[in-house]
Amino acid sequence: MALDTFLLRELAAAAVLFLISHYLIHSLLKKSTPPLPPGPKGWPFVGALPLLGTMPHVALAQMAKKYGPVMYLKMGTCGMVVASTPDAARAFLKTLDLNFSNRPPNAGATHLAYNAQDMVFADYGPRWKLLRKLSNLHMLGGKALEDWTQVRTVELGHMIQAMCEASRAKEPVVVPEMLTYAMANMIGKVILGHRVFVTQGSESNEFKDMVVELMTSAGYFNIGDFIPSIAWMDLQGIERGMKKLHKRFDALLTKMFEEHMATAHERKGNPDLLDIVMANRDNSEGERLTTTNIKALLLNLFSAGTDTSSSIIEWSLAEMLKNPSILKRAHEEMDQVIGRNRRLEESDIKKLPYLQAICKESFRKHPSTPLNLPRVSSQACQVNGYYIPKDTRLSVNIWAIGRDPEVWENPLDFTPERFLSGKNAKIDPRGNDFELIPFGAGRRICAGTRMGIVLVEYILGTLVHSFDWSLPHGVKLNMDEAFGLALQKAVPLAAIVSPRLAPTAYVV
Q1: Broadest EC class (predicted)?
Q2: What pLDDT shows up at residue 8?
């Protein structure tokens, strides 16, 4: 009996010591570990997901005004940190770039991008490096862009001829359809050696609709991505739509791929991008590209290469229709530098600072990817004195940075002049100035940054120089946004154009 009492006393003492030591250790750890960034509490189970609404970039920008530049949200079972100022973006995309160099798993990567076998969603590693290297060397890099200058010139010539025909018929030009048709053919000539659309019509418009659907669905905050245990239920129907769209894209890409392989003998000595990729499927690290990797790369180049640039150009033209004085000043600059007897050439752009300012202002106010493509932390880290756990998703609110009154004077105004003098004159959109990062920054900056800037400046400059622009009679300009991976206009821009150059300037 005495032994039992002794044992009970010892066990009780041990339990008390365990609880005290556990409490002390927990308290010490709590004191030594910085707090999570501030953020909204959210709802039980689903967290902050319902707070994002239909325009997440706007909702997150409003939250940042309350919670600060680095904000933490519990999204289902996942954590997400949002950077909303240039300094916060720099901390994640420059200082901690390597730690945030991967993408989180998501339905878009799985169902649209061949289970992340592409360049956009691939893990940072040998396969991603090989895909990026081949794309830069033969399509997206500086030398490659120079090599296909003539392709852009010819395809843009076809486009302005079609616009002249619409002008003669007094028909409005639907800007995004026209741009997608021209850009898809430019990219097709480089990748496949031929135009993918012979005429503008139902086939090219269907492709445009597919690209917009891809960018829209890939931009959704899908509940299944944040609560994996219920992903199979597909509560929003997003994954069903993605699977259907993937089948359509895969059929198109497979057809392109097979036709290209069947005509390889015709291109001996004059290879296109796909020929070069096929010939360099292996790298020194033992990585080999599969046919699926290559189809996924084609999907990246065609979708991102057309939709992001065309949306910026469309927003730019809409802003000039809203502000005719900007269009007038652009015309005056171009008439002085180029005249009206020939088309604008890419070599003219460096002599057109106001055109370049218009493009920068569009990148600022209407970034093509309002929330930079998500990244995820490989290890726990600290930012601004806050603790960021491992596997935390990162969103950089590029849209909010572009409209931050602490960074930009009168940010809601479209004022290209802000880039002509003063502190903003040397700001560049290529990822080094975090006040203006329309393509992101760091290791995972958009691979097509150079191409995007060239296409926007050259195509927008040509459209402005070649035509006078006006809205159809009785039509009001709608400037509402439609959220997606790329920021579209809710109502596509349709405008009346009238040629302003000598007739010989429109001959291809």
Answers
A1: oxidoreductase
A2: 46
> Average pLDDT, stretch 95-123?
95
Look at residue 12 in the predicted model and tell me its pLDDT. 54
- Dihedral in degrees, nearest 10, Cα atoms 460, 462, 464, 469: -100
CA triple 423-424-426, angle to 5 deg? 95
Q: Are 383 and 88 in contact (CB under 8 A)?
A: yes
Cβ within 8 Å of residue 380, ≥6 positions away: 387, 388, 389, 390
HSE, side-chain direction, 13 A CA sphere, residue 490: 9
Domain ranges within the chain, ordered by starting residue:
35-506
Please answer whether residues 361 and 416 qualify as being in contact, where contact means their C-beta atoms are separated by less than 8 angstroms: yes
pLDDT, tens digit, 9 for 90 and up, residues 64-73: 999 999 999 9
Enter the tokens of residue 218. Answer: 């890939």
Give the Cβ contact number of residue 420 at 10 Å. Answer: 14
The alpha carbon of residue 350 and the mean position of all alpha carbons in its chain are separated, in whole angstroms, by 25
Q: Could you tell me which residues are annotated as the binding site?
A: 446
* Mean pLDDT of the 345-364 span: 98
Question: Residue 18 pLDDT more than 60?
Answer: no
For residue 376, which amino acid is it? V
| Helix residue ranges, H only, 195-289 | 202-219, 223-226, 238-262, 273-279
CATH no., domain 35-506:
1.10.630.10
- pLDDT above 90 for 233: yes
DSSP state of 138: I
CB 119 within 8 A of CB 297: yes
- Sequence-ordered list of residues with C-beta below 8 angstroms from that of 452, at least 6 positions apart, any chain: 308, 309, 312, 368, 439, 446
- Identify the DSSP state of 148: T
CA atoms within 13 A on the CB side of 13: 6
Binding residues for heme: 446
Residue 282 pairs in a beta bridge with: 288
User: Between 485 and 330, where is the model more confident?
Assistant: 330
% of residues, the chain, pLDDT over 90: 78
Q: Flag whether pLDDT at 11 surpasses 50.
A: no
Whether 28 shows a pLDDT value over 70: the answer reads: no
Per DSSP bridges, beta strands 393-396 and 78-83 are parallel
